[in-house]
Specification:
It contains ten helices and seven strands. A five-stranded parallel sheet has the order 2-1-3-6-7, sandwiched between helices. It folds into two domains: about 70 residues, Orthogonal Bundle (434 Repressor (Amino-terminal Domain)), CATH 1.10.260.40; about 110 residues, Response regulator (Rossmann fold, 3-Layer(aba) Sandwich). The mean pLDDT is about 85.
């Protein structure tokens, strides 16, 4: 069964401050049905997924994609307005996440459009993106999919306090290295299968 969907459903329910009984009441199902979904013993059908999305205040595609994503390779993006840093970072990510689909972006708008079409498991965001902010991009990505893991990347440690005010999983000082990424992968809010050697 899809334990990734089950775990994410539980986290989203708790984030909304609902018990299984309360969610079951809103869904017009027995609390044991919610328990079965959250344990991975059963999966809701499409109608129930739509109802879940409404009760939990997320887009239906988010929950549908969570169900479909379990057997797929993770999607990872990196956004940095420096081509040199982006190229170097992509090389690091390709080495340590060999089973992931990895895409790099200089422009935040392109990253947002990509995220609308692909469920992003991990986004590594520069904080200073020209006239834009990585903090704003973080918010936009989490509106699209609240289960996206966000890591901020910057050369300025002063930004770390503001970074922790967001729902980010972590903070990395430039340059991006294999060691720094591997360390942060252990602390993700929503872990995914890394693949390859993570030692």
């Amino acid at each position: 069964m899809d334990h990734s969907f089950a775990e994410n459903l539980r986290k989203l329910r708790e984030k909304n401050g609902l018990s299984q009984k309360q969610l079951g009441k809103q869904m017009f199902v027995n609390p044991s049905t919610i328990a079965n979904w959250e344990s991975g013993r059963r999966l809701p059908d499409a109608v129930m997924v739509l109802r879940l999305a409404k009760c939990l205040g997320v887009d239906a595609n988010t929950l549908l994609q969570l169900e479909a994503q379990s057997e797929k390779s993770p999607n990872v993006i990196m956004v940095d307005d420096s081509e040199i840093i982006l190229t170097g970072g992509m090389s690091v990510l390709n080495d340590i996440l060999p089973n992931a689909t990895i895409a790099g972006f200089i422009w935040p708008t392109e990253a947002i459009e990509y995220a609308k079409l692909n469920r992003i498991d991990l986004a590594i965001l520069d904080i200073e993106l020209g006239t834009s902010s990585g903090f704003d991009l973080c918010g936009d990505l989490l509106k699209i999919n609240p289960f996206t893991n966000i890591l901020f990347l910057t050369a300025y440690i002063d930004y770390s306090y503001d970074a922790w005010k967001t729902e980010a999983s972590g903070f990395i000082l430039k340059p991006l290295t294999s060691e720094s990424v591997k360390e942060q992968l252990k602390k993700l809010r929503y872990p995914f299968q890394v693949g390859g050697s993570d030692k």
